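ARCHIVE CARD
SHELF: 3
SLOT: left
DATA:
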Amino acid sequence: MVTASFNLFPGEAESRREVVWTLKKVGDAWKISDIAAPKSDWKLSQFDCTTPQQGGCGMLTGRIVGSSVAALCIVVPASALAGTPTEAVMAFYDHVGLELDPAERGRFVDPARAVFDGNERLHKAGEGDCLDPNMPLDNVETGADEIGKTLKSLETVKGDQAKVTVAFVAAGAPHRLQWQLRKVGDAWKVADILSITGEWALSQYHCE
């Protein structure tokens, strides 16, 4: 067995991860027979890829990229990502500006939803906006393509509460945000956004 250890965020013990590779020697060559991530509680051998499934039985994710790991692809079942806090957050990086779309307000709960609703009322009344632009990008005017090259995320879940810490580099400067989510039914919804770098929180805005 070969165990690969790394930190998603350098210097943060809670972001430490391990991937265990099991190999068998066939002739003169060592070949991989299984891959497991103990902390994430999955094994490649547990995936059922014998029957067709929507989206396939697994996927590759390259979101874990940083100074600790130059490039890492982890095989996980497609169903494992569906409805997770990280998926809820990444939607805002896959579609920049999504948070300002009134049709997408169902992705939020209070206090975040109340702030966006207040901002929408001000906008419709012709009184401008009370929110800074590009809040998921830490109010930096940059393209999603640039951020996507350095985007990293770390998820922690406790019951129906979750936090997703997102880190990226924009215009040569590091940025880090924490998304706080609450589970409503089967869906994870954003309750607040905090910028660790810019020292602001969405819930602190008063859009009245």
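SLOT: right
DATA:
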Amino acid sequence: MSAARSRGTNFRVFDLCHRRRHHRRKGDRFRLVGFDTPETYRPQCDYELALGRAATSRLRDLLRDAQRVDLVVLPGRDRYDRGLARLIVQQLDVADTLVSEGLARRYNGGKRLGWCQ
């Protein structure tokens, strides 16, 4: 199976693990794979909300400052019928960047760990 790359489209960050790609008039929703970030929609504690907001802000900064952004669309869909993808900014997977900065953790499916103590 091959992955499709998309360049030159606009991205809207509305929840860190979920992105919407706007191309012409159609908006596609994608679940970014390889990492998990704290929830900002329904956080379980103040720490989770603060860390989730920091992660979202960091991704917005990465996208704003990037000269190159690639959305690598993968085969398959998640349970909410969103496409699966990896987001590559300046030739680095955002999963690697956010995990290395302590704003996300590795995730490849299954039960997710909580962010609150």
